[in-house]
UniProtKB/TrEMBL annotation:
It comes from Streptomyces melanogenes. Keywords: Membrane, Transmembrane, Transmembrane helix. The lineage of its organism: Bacteria, Bacillati, Actinomycetota, Actinomycetes, Kitasatosporales. This is DUF5819 family protein. The chain crosses the membrane at residues 12-32.
Length: 207
Protein backbone atom coordinates (compact mmCIF):
# COMPACT_ATOMS: atom_id res chain seq x y z
CA UNK A 1 0.00 0.00 0.00
CA UNK A 2 2.72 2.56 0.78
CA UNK A 3 4.26 1.80 -2.63
CA UNK A 4 0.91 2.45 -4.31
CA UNK A 5 0.42 5.73 -2.41
CA UNK A 6 3.94 6.78 -3.30
CA UNK A 7 3.29 6.09 -6.97
CA UNK A 8 0.02 8.05 -6.90
CA UNK A 9 1.69 10.96 -5.10
CA UNK A 10 4.56 10.99 -7.57
CA UNK A 11 2.14 10.96 -10.50
CA UNK A 12 0.11 13.80 -9.00
CA UNK A 13 3.23 15.89 -8.39
CA UNK A 14 4.45 15.25 -11.93
CA UNK A 15 1.05 16.22 -13.35
CA UNK A 16 0.97 19.45 -11.33
CA UNK A 17 4.49 20.38 -12.40
CA UNK A 18 3.75 19.60 -16.05
CA UNK A 19 0.55 21.68 -15.95
CA UNK A 20 2.37 24.58 -14.30
CA UNK A 21 5.15 24.49 -16.91
CA UNK A 22 2.67 24.36 -19.79
CA UNK A 23 0.70 27.24 -18.26
CA UNK A 24 3.82 29.40 -17.87
CA UNK A 25 4.90 28.63 -21.44
CA UNK A 26 1.52 29.48 -22.96
CA UNK A 27 1.16 32.69 -20.97
CA UNK A 28 4.72 33.67 -21.96
CA UNK A 29 3.88 33.13 -25.64
CA UNK A 30 0.75 35.23 -25.13
CA UNK A 31 2.53 38.26 -23.65
CA UNK A 32 5.75 37.98 -25.67
CA UNK A 33 6.23 40.01 -28.87
CA UNK A 34 4.93 38.20 -31.99
CA UNK A 35 7.32 35.45 -33.07
CA UNK A 36 7.14 32.35 -35.28
CA UNK A 37 6.32 30.07 -32.34
CA UNK A 38 3.51 32.23 -30.93
CA UNK A 39 2.06 32.77 -34.41
CA UNK A 40 2.14 29.06 -35.24
CA UNK A 41 0.35 28.07 -32.03
CA UNK A 42 -1.82 31.17 -31.67
CA UNK A 43 -5.06 29.16 -31.65
CA UNK A 44 -3.88 26.86 -28.83
CA UNK A 45 -2.46 29.78 -26.83
CA UNK A 46 -5.65 31.81 -27.09
CA UNK A 47 -7.80 28.79 -26.23
CA UNK A 48 -5.84 28.36 -22.98
CA UNK A 49 -5.42 32.02 -22.01
CA UNK A 50 -8.89 33.41 -22.72
CA UNK A 51 -10.94 34.29 -20.81
CA UNK A 52 -9.59 33.18 -17.41
CA UNK A 53 -5.86 33.92 -17.79
CA UNK A 54 -5.93 37.10 -19.84
CA UNK A 55 -2.90 39.30 -19.27
CA UNK A 56 -2.38 43.04 -19.66
CA UNK A 57 0.16 45.67 -18.67
CA UNK A 58 -2.05 47.83 -16.47
CA UNK A 59 -0.05 46.83 -13.41
CA UNK A 60 2.82 48.87 -14.85
CA UNK A 61 0.75 51.54 -16.61
CA UNK A 62 -2.49 51.94 -14.63
CA UNK A 63 -5.53 53.09 -16.54
CA UNK A 64 -7.96 54.41 -13.90
CA UNK A 65 -11.65 54.03 -14.59
CA UNK A 66 -13.34 57.22 -15.79
CA UNK A 67 -16.86 55.84 -15.34
CA UNK A 68 -18.87 53.80 -12.87
CA UNK A 69 -20.97 50.97 -14.28
CA UNK A 70 -23.94 49.21 -12.74
CA UNK A 71 -24.72 45.90 -14.42
CA UNK A 72 -28.15 44.39 -13.82
CA UNK A 73 -29.87 41.29 -15.19
CA UNK A 74 -33.43 40.11 -15.60
CA UNK A 75 -34.72 36.70 -16.62
CA UNK A 76 -37.42 35.32 -18.89
CA UNK A 77 -39.38 32.14 -18.20
CA UNK A 78 -42.15 30.54 -20.22
CA UNK A 79 -44.63 28.64 -18.06
CA UNK A 80 -46.18 25.34 -19.21
CA UNK A 81 -49.39 27.19 -20.13
CA UNK A 82 -47.41 29.48 -22.45
CA UNK A 83 -47.38 32.49 -20.17
CA UNK A 84 -44.15 34.49 -20.49
CA UNK A 85 -42.84 35.93 -17.25
CA UNK A 86 -40.11 38.56 -17.07
CA UNK A 87 -38.51 39.17 -13.69
CA UNK A 88 -37.49 42.48 -12.21
CA UNK A 89 -33.92 43.72 -12.51
CA UNK A 90 -31.30 42.15 -10.26
CA UNK A 91 -28.24 44.33 -9.53
CA UNK A 92 -25.14 42.21 -10.08
CA UNK A 93 -22.77 45.08 -9.36
CA UNK A 94 -24.36 45.69 -5.96
CA UNK A 95 -23.71 42.06 -5.02
CA UNK A 96 -20.02 42.44 -5.91
CA UNK A 97 -19.77 45.75 -4.06
CA UNK A 98 -21.31 44.18 -0.95
CA UNK A 99 -18.79 41.33 -1.11
CA UNK A 100 -15.87 43.78 -1.28
CA UNK A 101 -17.01 46.39 1.24
CA UNK A 102 -15.50 45.92 4.71
CA UNK A 103 -13.72 42.77 3.49
CA UNK A 104 -9.94 42.98 4.09
CA UNK A 105 -9.31 40.15 1.62
CA UNK A 106 -11.94 40.40 -1.14
CA UNK A 107 -11.89 37.72 -3.79
CA UNK A 108 -10.77 38.28 -7.36
CA UNK A 109 -14.20 37.23 -8.64
CA UNK A 110 -15.95 39.93 -6.61
CA UNK A 111 -13.49 42.62 -7.65
CA UNK A 112 -12.81 41.92 -11.29
CA UNK A 113 -14.71 39.05 -12.93
CA UNK A 114 -17.87 40.91 -13.91
CA UNK A 115 -16.03 44.16 -14.69
CA UNK A 116 -13.43 42.47 -16.89
CA UNK A 117 -16.09 40.36 -18.62
CA UNK A 118 -17.92 43.54 -19.60
CA UNK A 119 -14.69 45.26 -20.71
CA UNK A 120 -13.83 42.27 -22.91
CA UNK A 121 -17.34 42.32 -24.34
CA UNK A 122 -16.99 45.99 -25.28
CA UNK A 123 -13.62 45.39 -26.91
CA UNK A 124 -15.05 42.66 -29.13
CA UNK A 125 -18.45 44.18 -29.98
CA UNK A 126 -17.38 47.47 -31.51
CA UNK A 127 -20.29 48.06 -33.89
CA UNK A 128 -23.29 46.38 -32.26
CA UNK A 129 -24.23 43.46 -30.05
CA UNK A 130 -23.84 40.85 -32.80
CA UNK A 131 -20.80 38.55 -32.33
CA UNK A 132 -18.82 38.77 -35.56
CA UNK A 133 -15.80 36.72 -34.51
CA UNK A 134 -15.09 33.62 -32.39
CA UNK A 135 -13.60 35.86 -29.70
CA UNK A 136 -16.73 38.04 -29.63
CA UNK A 137 -18.94 34.96 -29.30
CA UNK A 138 -16.74 33.64 -26.50
CA UNK A 139 -16.96 36.90 -24.51
CA UNK A 140 -20.74 36.95 -24.99
CA UNK A 141 -21.06 33.40 -23.65
CA UNK A 142 -18.70 34.22 -20.79
CA UNK A 143 -20.79 37.22 -19.75
CA UNK A 144 -23.97 35.17 -20.14
CA UNK A 145 -22.63 32.40 -17.91
CA UNK A 146 -21.52 34.81 -15.17
CA UNK A 147 -24.87 36.61 -15.11
CA UNK A 148 -27.03 33.49 -15.27
CA UNK A 149 -25.00 31.66 -12.61
CA UNK A 150 -25.18 34.60 -10.21
CA UNK A 151 -28.87 35.31 -10.61
CA UNK A 152 -29.62 31.59 -10.21
CA UNK A 153 -27.55 31.45 -7.02
CA UNK A 154 -29.26 34.48 -5.46
CA UNK A 155 -32.80 34.18 -6.82
CA UNK A 156 -33.21 30.59 -7.94
CA UNK A 157 -36.11 29.59 -10.15
CA UNK A 158 -36.26 28.54 -13.79
CA UNK A 159 -35.49 30.74 -16.77
CA UNK A 160 -34.57 30.26 -20.40
CA UNK A 161 -33.11 33.66 -21.29
CA UNK A 162 -31.50 36.67 -19.67
CA UNK A 163 -31.07 40.33 -20.56
CA UNK A 164 -28.38 42.64 -19.25
CA UNK A 165 -28.69 46.35 -18.60
CA UNK A 166 -25.53 48.40 -18.13
CA UNK A 167 -25.87 51.91 -16.70
CA UNK A 168 -22.72 53.97 -17.21
CA UNK A 169 -22.24 57.01 -15.01
CA UNK A 170 -19.24 59.25 -15.80
CA UNK A 171 -17.09 60.08 -12.82
CA UNK A 172 -17.32 63.80 -12.21
CA UNK A 173 -14.16 65.86 -12.58
CA UNK A 174 -12.81 67.32 -9.34
CA UNK A 175 -14.13 70.74 -8.48
CA UNK A 176 -11.70 73.57 -9.20
CA UNK A 177 -9.92 75.21 -6.31
CA UNK A 178 -11.71 78.18 -4.80
CA UNK A 179 -10.81 81.44 -6.43
CA UNK A 180 -9.83 79.77 -9.70
CA UNK A 181 -12.53 81.69 -11.49
CA UNK A 182 -14.46 78.65 -12.75
CA UNK A 183 -17.98 77.84 -11.74
CA UNK A 184 -17.36 74.09 -11.81
CA UNK A 185 -17.74 71.29 -14.30
CA UNK A 186 -21.24 70.31 -15.36
CA UNK A 187 -21.86 66.63 -14.66
CA UNK A 188 -22.38 64.37 -17.66
CA UNK A 189 -25.56 62.33 -17.87
CA UNK A 190 -25.76 58.58 -17.30
CA UNK A 191 -26.16 56.21 -20.22
CA UNK A 192 -28.24 53.02 -20.14
CA UNK A 193 -27.48 50.20 -22.56
CA UNK A 194 -29.84 47.25 -22.97
CA UNK A 195 -28.33 44.10 -24.44
CA UNK A 196 -30.36 41.56 -26.44
CA UNK A 197 -32.06 38.61 -24.79
CA UNK A 198 -29.62 35.70 -24.64
CA UNK A 199 -30.64 32.08 -24.25
CA UNK A 200 -29.23 30.03 -21.38
CA UNK A 201 -29.18 26.32 -20.69
CA UNK A 202 -32.47 25.46 -19.04
CA UNK A 203 -31.12 22.33 -17.34
CA UNK A 204 -28.51 24.28 -15.38
CA UNK A 205 -31.04 26.81 -13.99
CA UNK A 206 -34.16 24.82 -13.38
CA UNK A 207 -35.97 24.24 -10.13
Amino acid sequence: MPVFLQAVTSAAVFLCLATALVHVLLVFLHVAPPNPLSQRYARQVNAWVFPLFEQNWRLFAPDPESVNRKISVRTLHTAPDGTVRVSGWFDLTAVDDAAVEHNPFPSHTAQNMLRRAWSSYLENHVVDDQPRSPRALMTQRYLTNIASDRVAAHRGGSFEAIQLRVITVPIAAPAPASGAGAAGVAPRTADARYLPWWKVEVDSHGN
